Amino acid sequence: MIAALFLASAVAVVDGGTLRVNGEHIRLLGIEAPDIAARCRKGGNCPPADPRRSKDSLKHSLRDPITIIPVARDAAGRTVAIIYAGGLNVSCEQLRKGMAVYRPRWDSDRRLARECRFARAGGG
């Protein structure tokens, strides 16, 4: 898979863990952010952040250049990618800010765990 460069103005934020680029939904590797439209079931293992704050956090993290490195496809057929904005890994930034939680089972080849020093073996 080939890395692609985009300008921040060409990227739309769907929620704290998903971007839309040229009409395609792209999920951030290894994290779960709260969905804007979904509600957490009582007793569910949901991200603790407020959905709107998580989305705004991701939006404010986007700065040029944005590099998208596709890693896989998820069960819904969306691209899962490592995304850098202004040289920073935005999955790591969302974790650092408490706007998402690390999900080891979603971290292909533990790439995010190696890059984010706070992404531990715990999580779901």
UniProtKB/TrEMBL annotation:
Could you tell me which InterPro entries the record lists for this protein?
SNase_OB-fold_sf, Staphylococal_nuclease_OB-fold
The record, for Gene3D superfamilies, names: 2.40.50.90
* Domain (TNase-like): residue spans on this chain: 26-108
- SUPFAM superfamilies of this UniProt entry? Staphylococcal nuclease
Q: What is this protein called?
A: Nuclease (SNase domain-containing protein)
Q: What is the lineage of its organism?
A: Bacteria, Pseudomonadati, Pseudomonadota, Alphaproteobacteria, Sphingomonadales
